[in-house]
């Protein structure tokens, strides 16, 4: 059962989660953070900016949840670029310690297993930040993803491509495929922190927190986790 924390707004959520991350890094300077993209985690990264000033973050490690397949990592909307721009540079993290699945490698069939091995070698993720898609996906685990799934290539749903078209010039430019940590991978992080804001996420939040455990609602996998925290505003909590 996930713990639900209802906060006034996204900035308050960002502050709450950033405080938790600062505490983690204070006790573990080489903490392993699970990084998420999308607009939802941005207040966390913004709040971390001030809070981590003056802290040695050179040992902090990070693993992104997912990446598009088939776009150049240098494309401004690749998740590699987004994580670099929104997290690594502003927080002064060591880029060599920050990993993003490689969706542009010729050996794509090995990339998932390689990523899993890198997470394992780091000792696993301490705190995984999660957003949630309007169709209930976490990472890019679209409906139908097995709770046991590992990092692999997936096909994006039309809904997700429409949701993410705002980052591209047109929906035609949104990649068809992605590489994402699996639900089984995500569930191995020691602490899950799922954030959601606005009434557009209310149904996905209700499904994740209270819905049946089903691959059709990938976010419902968090109910299996012994330490999951859901941080939402009133609007995103409105169907709980
Ligand atoms: C993308 C990401 C997810 C994210 C979701 C929601 O699909 N792969 O990790 O949770 O978008 O995005 P937003 O936070 O912008 O609503």
From TrEMBL:
Which residues of this protein are catalytic?
66, 135, 137, 142
Q: CDD domains given for it?
A: GlcN6P_deaminase (cd01399)
Identify the residues that the record assigns to the Glucosamine/galactosamine-6-phosphate isomerase domain, covering every copy. Answer: 10-224
Query: Which biological pathway?
Result: Amino-sugar metabolism; N-acetylneuraminate degradation; D-fructose 6-phosphate from N-acetylneuraminate: step 5/5
* Keywords for the protein's UniProt record, in alphabetical order: Allosteric enzyme, Carbohydrate metabolism, Hydrolase
* Record-annotated site: Part of the allosteric site: 145, 152, 154-155
Q: Which reaction does it catalyse?
A: alpha-D-glucosamine 6-phosphate + H2O = beta-D-fructose 6-phosphate + NH4(+)
Q: What is its EC number?
A: 3.5.99.6
Q: Which InterPro entries match?
A: Glc/Gal-6P_isomerase, Glucosamine6P_isomerase, Glucosamine6P_isomerase_CS, NagB/RpiA_transferase-like
Name the Gene3D superfamilies for this protein: 3.40.50.1360
Q: Which GO terms describe its molecular function?
A: glucosamine-6-phosphate deaminase activity
Regarding activators and inhibitors, the annotation says:
Allosterically activated by N-acetylglucosamine 6-phosphate (GlcNAc6P).
Q: What class of enzyme is it?
A: hydrolase
Q: What does this protein do?
A: Catalyzes the reversible isomerization-deamination of glucosamine 6-phosphate (GlcN6P) to form fructose 6-phosphate (Fru6P) and ammonium ion.
Q: Which family does it belong to?
A: Belongs to the glucosamine/galactosamine-6-phosphate isomerase family. NagB subfamily.
Report what the protein is called. Answer: Glucosamine-6-phosphate deaminase
Q: Which organism is it from?
A: Microbacterium profundi
